[in-house]
Each structure stands twice: as structure tokens, then as C-alpha cells.
Amino acid sequence: MNGQADYQQMQKLEEMKKQILGKVLDKEAFERLGRVRAVNQQLAGQVELYLLQLFQSGKLQGKVDDEKLKEILGILSEKKDFSIKRK
């Protein structure tokens, strides 16, 4: 019973997230994010979280276009290089 309620809650949250992202992203950027999600769900999730945080804090002026989304994807997808040095 509780599992069904949890599932419904998750569906509701996903729908709200989709609505907000639809307001925040222009058509091309929304489509690009969909393609990224198909290839790399983790990166798409990071981008969505970042955009939702910007939206909630009121730091977004206007819609995010495709070029701005490319910049965000580039920043978030950079590999963090680190090396282990043995002595």
C-alpha cells in the first residue's frame, strides 16, 4: 500500500519538474535535454537539479536557450581529473 503512495508521489514530482523545466527552457533546449537524458541520465539529472535550483532562487531571467544549455552541460560534464601519487 505504501509503495503505491510513494510511486504516486514520485510521479507527481516528476510532472511538476517537467512543467517547471518547460517554463524555464526554450523548445530547442528542452529537446536537447531530452536527448541528453536518453544517453546520460545522471548528467541530465544534474542539469535539471541545477536549473530547478536557479528557478527557485529567482536567478533565472527569461528562458534558457540552447546555447546556454550547452554551456551548462559543458560545465557539469567536465571530468574532474585527479591523480594518486605514490611515494
Structural commentary:
This protein is mainly α. It has a domain at 24-60. It has helices at residues 2-24, 27-39, 41-57, 66-77. α2 runs antiparallel to α3 (41-57). It starts with a helix and ends in a 10-residue tail after the last helix.
Low-confidence segments:
none
The fraction of residues in strands falls at under 5%
What sequence of helices (H) and strands (E) makes up the elements? HHHH
Task: Report the mean per-residue pLDDT as an integer.
Answer: 88
Q: Taking Cα atoms only, what radius of gyration do you get, to the nearest Å?
A: 16 Å
The end-to-end span amounts to: 56 Å
Q: Structural class per helix/strand content? A: mainly alpha
Categorize the overall geometry.
globular
Structure summary, number of beta strands: 0
Q: State the helix count.
A: 4
Q: The biggest beta sheet, please?
A: none
The helix content is over 70%
Quickly list its features.
87 residues; mainly alpha
Can you give me a brief rundown of this structure?
By secondary structure, the chain is mostly helical. The protein has a domain at 24-60. Helix content is 75%, strand content 0%.
